[in-house]
Every structure is written in structure tokens, then in C-alpha cells.
Amino acid sequence: MKTAQGWRLGIGDIQIMTGPRHRPQLKRPMWIIVLVSLVSFFLIGSYVYPRQSYAACYIFSSSGCKSISEWLPPTPSRVFTDEEIAARVVSRDLLKISIQSKNPKIAFMFLTPGSLPFEKLWDKFFHGHEDRFSIYIHASSEKPRHVSRYFVDRDIRSEKVVWGTISMVDAERRLLANALQDPDNQHFVLLSDSCVPLHNFDYVYNYLMDTNMSFVDSFEDPGPHGNARYSEHMLPEVEKKDFRKGAQWFSMKRQHALIVLADNLYYSIFKQYCKPGMEGRNCYADEHYLQTFFHMIDPIGIANWSVTHVDWSEGKWHPKSYRAQDVTYELLKNITSIDKTTHVTSGEKKETQIKQCLWNGMKRPCYLFARKFYPEALDNLMHLFSNYTTV
Ligand SMILES: *[C@@H]1O[C@H](CO)[C@@H](O)[C@H](O)[C@H]1NC(C)=O
Ligand SMILES: *[C@@H]1O[C@H](CO)[C@@H](O)[C@H](O)[C@H]1NC(C)=O
Ligand SMILES: *[C@@H]1O[C@H](CO)[C@@H](O)[C@H](O)[C@H]1NC(C)=O
Ligand SMILES: *[C@@H]1O[C@H](CO)[C@@H](O)[C@H](O)[C@H]1NC(C)=O
């Protein structure tokens, strides 16, 4: 709007210079003077305001300017529904609220079938940082036995989780809702029973707290395990061009956790139209809902990668799982030094998208946690922990 005003202001100036209508017949030299002043007016304008003066931009070059479309009013391809307008306005304002706490904590939310095999390792990780974290456990099939004092009495009411269905997303939302009850929780990390920490607590705390970014894995996969899972029933709210894929293991800021809980519109669409065996396709809500939702609602607020490392390089149905003998100092050093993310599209093409991990605009290693480790890896991890976690 600022720019459109500038343009109109310009016209006003010209009118003053060229004079009002009741003097139509200008003599030839007068014409030239007017023309010259007009041209110099724009030249000076584009010199003094090389970037901001979109009027000058528009007239003198269309490619040299940042974006002409920036000063045109947005042209929505369609009229939004009541629910979409509501969803967008609520998210926009929630994202603006600055939520502060005197004692900011990270909520570690464990999504697990039962007992956590690496509780002893996590105990070592948390020790000495008691006032800066809180733990929530959603055990979906059996009551866990806890060995660490930090995990005792931290189980939340849970429900059965069927892999690949919306019940997985429901469990994530249940964890978020429970963790949001504590106003000190500022960042929310979703972890599985096969996850382990890659750094010491201070490193993880600063990495997550000193940024406004949520780490939600999200990329476009045109292949059979990506866009082919999209259903046109999701229209008009979710278009195919916005459909995204990614690992479910997110970490997010409090504002983002709030908009996830506030969302009913997109959640309902994915609940209804993204499920296994839907019209002969398999769609898994935990791999698409939040990934697509954030891409649509706050694309620049997410990093597009997950801080939990997993190795898909073998190209199998399941990622590489580490056994006890695989867990060496070298392996852990390798994982902690990775500073680029790799996304491989599905299908024949197998296009590889490699991106530098940028943390507040700076190159940093990408990962804070890793999966998947067999329970038998515990002793090796305990033995190596103090060594590999030193920054
Ligand atoms: C996060 O955003 C707030 C509000 O916009 C700002 O004051 C703060 O400096 C930002 N923090 C970081 C680490 O960028
Ligand atoms: C994440 O991807 C979206 C496009 O999907 C992009 O607009 C956004 O800038 C990316 N985020 C970062 C931090 O690069
Ligand atoms: C660590 O990375 C190096 C270089 O990429 C590789 O040669 C080596 O096999 C890796 N070691 C382990 C244990 O993953
Ligand atoms: C840990 O590091 C120390 C000093 O670098 C080394 O002496 C020790 O052998 C390492 N421990 C393991 C288990 O690698």
C-alpha cells in the first residue's frame, strides 16, 4: 500500500508541474521542458530510492526490482470459506503473540508403546538441569516401568495408537495439550522410544531456545509416496501444490503448538481423507498433516528439517536400525557432524534434494537426537555418552 501511495503522490507532483487542464495549448519548448522534467523526476526518483521506489521500478525495469507482485494486491485464486478465514486469522494473531516465561523449559514428549529402553541414558542427559525441562510420556499399549526418577509419574492419559492412522496425530496433540498446561514450557520436542540424545543438555537447550524456528520436516515429493497420496476430496482448502511430506518427529515453539491445537479445519480434512487404504491409496496423516499445515500457515516459521536424525540411505522400507556393535564413537561423531539435510523423492526418479542446515541464518549441524537404536545399544551409548556429547 505504501508503494501505491508513492505512485499516486508522483502523479500529483506531475500534475502540479504540467499545470491544470485549462491551459491546453503548450508551446513546443514548454513541451520539451515538461518532458525533460518528467524523465528527470523519475531518474532522480529511481536514483534516490533505488529499491523502495516501485513506481520508478515499474517504469524503468521489471527485472531489476525485487518483485512487482509485491505491490500488487494479492489475487486469491478463489474466495476463502468462513472456516479458512477463521483459521488463518487465528493463526496469524497467535503467531504474533510473544509468550515469555521467567523460567523457560523444554517439554520432552515421548510417544512410545510401553517402557522406554533408553531411560537410563536420558537420566544422564537430564541430570543437573532439573528446572529446565519437563517430561510427558504417552504409552499407547502398556504401562511403562520407569527406572529414572525424572520419568516417574510423568505418564499422561493415553489411547491406542494404530501406526499410520490419525490416532498417531491424536496422540501428538494429546501430548501437546498436556505439555501446554505448564506455561513455562516454551519448546516442545516429540521423541520415540528408539531416540537418543546426540549432545549434552546445554547444547540442546540453547539450540532450541535461542531461535524462533520450529523444526518440522517438510518437503515436496512428487512421487508415489508423496503427492500420489493426495486426494482431491481435500479441495478447496488443501491444494495439491501445497501437499507436503516429512518425518513426524517435530520440535516446535509454543506459538506453533498453540496453532496446532487451535486447528480443527485442516485436522478434520486429513482425518477424513488421509488414511491407509483410502481409494486404493495409502495416506499416513502423521507424515502429511503437520507438514502440509505449516507449509500453508507459516512456511517461513519452520526449518523444513527435523532435529532427529534417521538413516534412510539403505533405501529400504524401514530406516537403518543400530545394533550394539554399530554404536561406536565414530558413528556418533559422523551423525553429529552432518550439516546438510537430504530428502529423496519416491518413485523412479529418486531425486535428491540437499540443503544446508541454517540455524538463525548460520551453518550449524542439523541434529540433536537420533533414531533408531535397538535396546541392546544402551550400554555402549552410556559408555560413550560423555565423550560424544562434548561439543
Ligand atoms: C524471536 O522473535 C522475537 C519477537 O519477534 C524477537 O524479539 C526475538 O529477538 C527473536 N529471537 C530470536 C532468537 O531470533
Ligand atoms: C521452508 O520451505 C518453504 C517452502 O516450502 C520456504 O518458503 C521456507 O523459506 C523454508 N524455510 C526455511 C527456513 O528455509
Ligand atoms: C563415518 O563417515 C565416513 C565418511 O563419510 C565413512 O567413511 C565411515 O564409514 C563412517 N563411519 C561410520 C561408523 O558410520
Ligand atoms: C573418551 O575420551 C577419552 C579422552 O579423549 C578417551 O581416553 C577415552 O578412551 C574415550 N572413551 C571411549 C569409551 O571412547
From TrEMBL:
This is Uncharacterized protein. The chain crosses the membrane at residues 30-49. Its main location: membrane. Keywords: Glycoprotein, Glycosyltransferase, Membrane, Transferase, Transmembrane, Transmembrane helix. One of its GO terms (cellular component) is membrane. The keyword Membrane applies. It is a single-pass type II membrane protein. It holds the Pfam family Branch. The lineage of its organism: Eukaryota, Viridiplantae, Streptophyta, Embryophyta, Tracheophyta.
